[in-house]
Specification:
Length: 532
């Protein structure tokens, strides 16, 4: 290291991570008579909007002090590869951080050399949260000739820099910069004060952030073609546990694991059964879940201790991009409190779970509107839950080689067992599902008599009625489709139940669907919503 001497006016390249930290550092170096150029190079910062926000603060500061800024082109992907890979689980201030300091200081050193600066240094040492000694060692090892060792936190540096930033009203960030530091900051804040989830879009930087947070053990709600899912890294037991606690879901109810490819499915499950190939070829990616023998890679918490695991490959383009970005399979049940109506828009998720998670990726309204068809692949192909892919669709794809039957879902079975074994679990609790707060009753053939209606009542038709019946003041008519098309009915049924709840209807009378094809799946949801 070359020493600064009193009479030597040096050109110094000053790396900074934000506007806040730079104030005192620029002021100090200027007061010593040096020429300062800021270097804003922070490939660690995610999402990209955060990089821009901090840059704006740096610009304001530069204008105030009359110093130029060199803005580096951030390559967050490269940063993830070179700095974070293998260190994702490190806490803030752990082993990942010195690697990140090195990455930034190497870029600063290179720029200082190329542009013939006398020295380079960094504002990182102004923060009491950052270890000056480590930073100096890294700086010197990167370029011993040019690195200038200044401990900016000395003589109340941090206090001074805060005073400057307040007087300029600079943007003040709430985390160090990368998604992992954001994850830790969010976890800390969540235990302190509950806050509402932030919406992400399908822009590449938002998808990358969602992917990184998920890989790092975070909880993110994601769109799929069926309903919105509450996703976590399926290989991370703690992350999966946080799904259960956010939903209030009993641990006896196993989760579906989402994958982007057949190869990824093979990391979780035995896919050797000949029916799997046929089903995957016909319906994947799409709304079909296969229950298969599980591999040891899958934590027991995901499968409720079952030897099988439920696997699905979604077709929703945003879900697929998130799966690719996360690089791990995602366990994701519907993103609603256990037992309540499933969410089919990002707003639904925000409304009923917003305070229990950090991010929701908005991918628009779900196309199917009800959950996937679940089949257990064994000696026969047994349907455990009806969905948009119907029994007839399955039979057609399988040909005569395998028979398709309708079976009971796992929870129903457990409810029955519990009933037999003097209810550890209230059986009604497991039969009742997809339920709004309002009372739900089903009708078919004849329009029900609403004389016994209590409070605000909704009369719901499958299709627009030819003429509306005379209704009392308390009652309003709704319909799930114009023409009775069951795909449309499935797409709108959960959204309507939520709308009626929100509008304060206390009594909902819904017309049943025709009991075949998709209609049978809709009826399954309706009868559970109506169960007491
Ligand atoms: P959800 O994620 O809320 O759509 O629900 C997933 C459902 O998949 C569970 O309630 C189970 O009924 C079913 N499921 C998941 N894993 C298994 C499994 N290993 N065996 C049987 N059913 C399963
Ligand atoms: Mg669910």
């Amino acid at each position: 290291m070359r020493l600064l001497n009193q009479n030597f006016m040096a050109r110094i390249l000053l790396h900074t991570c934000c506007g806040i930290c730079a104030g005192h550092c620029v002021s100090l170096l200027q007061s010593q008579g040096h020429e300062v150029v800021l270097f804003y190079s922070n490939a660690n910062i995610a999402p990209a909007s955060e990089f821009e926000r901090r840059l704006k603060a740096v610009d304001t500061l530069c204008a105030h002090f009359g110093v130029p800024v060199i803005v580096d082109t951030p390559n967050h992907r490269e940063w993830l590869e070179r700095v974070a890979r293998g260190f994702e689980r490190e806490p803030e201030r752990g082993a990942r951080c010195p690697r990140c300091f090195r990455y930034s200081l190497e870029r600063a050193a290179r720029t200082a050399r190329e542009r013939d600066f006398d020295f380079f240094t960094t504002t990182l040492s102004v923060s009491p949260h950052k270890p000056s000694k480590t930073i100096f060692e890294i700086g010197k090892s990167v370029d011993a000739e040019r690195f200038l060792e200044v401990d900016f936190k000395k003589q109340d540096g941090f206090k001074k820099t805060n005073t400057i930033s307040r007087s300029l009203d600079l943007y003040r960030q709430s985390y160090c910069g990368c998604e992992f530091s954001l994850r830790d900051a969010l976890a800390q804040r969540r235990t302190a004060t509950p806050k509402t989830a932030e919406m992400l879009s399908d822009r590449p930087e938002d998808i990358a952030l969602a992917g990184s947070l998920l890989r790092a053990g975070g909880l993110v709600a994601i769109p799929t073609e069926t309903v919105y899912g509450l996703a976590a890294n399926a290989f991370d037991e703690n992350a999966v546990r946080s799904i259960f606690s956010a939903k209030g879901r009993p641990f006896i109810d196993p989760l579906i694991v989402h994958v982007h490819s057949l190869e990824q499915a093979e990391t979780l499950a035995d896919t050797a059964h000949p029916a799997v190939e046929k089903l995957a070829k016909a319906f994947w990616p799409g709304p079909l879940t296969l229950v298969l023998p599980k591999k040891a890679t899958v934590p027991d918490i995901v499968t409720a201790g079952e030897p099988t695991v439920a696997v699905r490959m979604p077709v929703h383009p945003v879900a697929r991009k998130i799966l690719r970005a996360a690089e791990v399979p995602l366990a994701a049940p519907s993103a609603n409190p256990f037992g309540y109506v499933s969410p089919t828009t990002a707003q639904h998720v925000l409304q009923s779970l917003g305070e229990r998670l950090d991010y929701i990726v908005d991918g628009g309204a779900c196309d199917c509107g009800i959950e996937s068809t679940i089949v257990l692949v064994g000696e026969t192909v047994r349907i455990l839950r009806l969905g948009i892919i119907t029994r007839e669709d399955l039979e057609k794809a399988l040909g005569t080689e395998f028979s398709v039957e309708i079976g009971k879902g796992l929870l129903e079975k457990k409810a029955e067992e519990a009933e037999m074994q003097t209810a550890q679990i209230a059986p009604g609790m497991l039969k009742k599902h997809y339920s709004p707060r309002a009372k739900v009753e089903l009708w078919e053939n004849a329009i029900p008599n609403l004389e016994d209606a209590t409070g605000k009542t909704a009369l719901v038709f499958q299709k627009r009625p030819g003429s509306l019946p005379a209704l009392s003041e308390n009652a309003t008519a709704f319909w799930l489709s114009e023409d009775g098309d069951q795909a449309t009915v499935a797409r709108s049924v959960f959204a309507l139940l939520r709308r009626l709840d929100d509008a304060g209807f206390s009594d909902i009378r819904i017309e049943r669907s025709p009991n075949d094809g998709i209609g049978a799946a809709v009826n399954d949801r309706l009868s559970r919503a109506a169960a007491r």
